[in-house]
Design brief:
42% of the residues lie in helices and 36% in strands. With 121 residues, it is an alpha+beta fold.
Length: 121
């Protein structure tokens, strides 16, 4: 049981973290390639306190949007303090979703940053 707790579990957590980062990278590339701009609605602003003793917190915005077929999708995105302060619950948010996979989306400013990064290659 100790081996499971101290070796296997941490390896699984690290593996999942790597998978999540790689998956989101592919999703951002897809949004740059076939993204459709839309306006979503902020459903919630979520703030998570940092580790004990840390003054930093993680801020996320959960938003909903409709694709071209009228289906509603939601997504939660980690955002900066400036972006957090610029949006209110119930207010609009500029987003980009994938034409080929409408459930994949991101705030428009993050997609623009990805476009700029890919253009520099």
């Amino acid at each position: 049981m100790t081996v499971l707790l101290y070796i296997v579990l941490p390896l699984l957590l690290v593996g999942y973290g790597i998978y999540a980062v790689v998956r989101r990278g592919f999703e951002m590339a897809q949004l740059v390639k076939d993204g459709v701009e839309a306006t979503g609605q902020v459903q919630a602003k979520l703030e998570y306190a940092g580790a004990s003793g840390s003054r930093r917190s993680t801020r996320r915005i959960r938003y909903a949007y409709q694709d071209a077929a009228g289906r509603t999708h939601t997504h939660t995105s980690m955002i900066t303090s400036d972006f957090w302060n610029a949006h209110v619950e119930g207010g609009p948010i500029a987003i980009v979703y994938s034409r080929s996979r409408p459930q994949v989306s991101a705030p428009r400013h993050l997609v623009e940053l990805s476009r700029q990064a890919l253009a520099k290659k």
